[in-house]
Amino acid sequence: MPNQTPSQTIGPFFHYVMPRGEEGILTTDRTLGQRITLTGRLLDGDGNPISDGFIEIWQADSQGYFNHPTDPNQRKADKSFRGFGRCSTNKDGEFWFKTVKPGPVEWEAGMMQAPHISVRVFARGMLNYTTTRLYFSDEPANDIDPVLNSLPEPERKRTLIATLQRSEDLPCYCFDIHLQGEDETVFFSS
Amino acid sequence: MTTLQPYTSLDRDIHPPYLHESYKATIKRSPQKPLVPLRQTLSDLTGPVYGEDALRPLDNDLSSNAAVNGEPLGERIIVTGRMLDDTGRPVRNALIEIWQANAAGRYAHIIDQHPAPLDPNFLGAGRCLTDSNGEYRFISIKPGAYPWRNHENAWRPAHIHFSVFGSAFLSRLVTQMYFPGDPLLALDPIYNSIPDEKARQRLISNYAHDVTWPDWALGYRFDIVVCGPQQTPFES
Prior knowledge:
A: mainly beta, Protocatechuate 3,4-Dioxygenase, subunit A, nine-stranded mixed sheet, globular, B: 236 residues
């Protein structure tokens, strides 16, 4: 069996991977579901913004389906929604996405997960990426979500919940990512 | 409910740790709390699917895809290899994106202030999809080494950045490919952050004379192995 190729840092010059501009808008006119925006900041161990970070998101469509062959419901998935986005952070460490609120995804037979978005963080100084999840502060299903409610340190649940902001435009959820410190975001291994 | 095929996990003995103090930027950017194990569900066993519409002509030829009034300077190279999962199956239709410095060791990027010349005919960005056998191929220019500020007289060995999408979000990988015989490798904290020597050496491409085109370009082979579906005895 071949062995895995080791990871190396994305470095500071990765902007080349988006030759056709930013890929932070996941929706088109035909995409189904409630439009939302996600914003947040990527912060280092001193709480300073990371201006050369790179955030990727992956999520189900508004019904909870993935347009991917592993999903047994792929044929029901919204063909006008890829589910993947990426955004570099700016000088203030900020990132921004426009997407739809995902539907629930199965955990095991008869049990669903609360709506969530998988989030991956890359940066100079990170030799490998980290993976976390974004949940929604106004989502009642959070109270019974199997991931949120089985964390080894339950008080860190707050680091996974994006806060609905007052907005006259689309619903906007704020999700800061702390790589270290008291508010260190929960990062997962799968 | 359909039973989902589990994926292999990142092998933490192979990948570098988040904190590697001699690479100074890791000190404030490395998570300090243990990773929390997460059950694999459809949320991670799926991922973006790419097709030919992700590509434009010349996307895999960095020696001509940004040419303005001639050819870029430097040693023309061919970089090819296979993308496999760690049970040995080829990963098909996978998007590979690369970026690199020019032959003088300079990135065409606003934040690169290294006083080496830019090349008007070289950008240093490319992409391609693997074929039905998992194979990919780029034409480029051998990148130069360049200085960085990590420590006194620090130089990065010549490298090409690789970003790859496997068959699911779980098989994502970003890494760097190096060149054989580079004396800077032994001094580089990023390369040496990988604890296992054999794993480290897998990031060094091999000179491949069978890939080399007579009178035109030198060939290098670099295979990439990512997480994939675990093998089961029932699989054909």
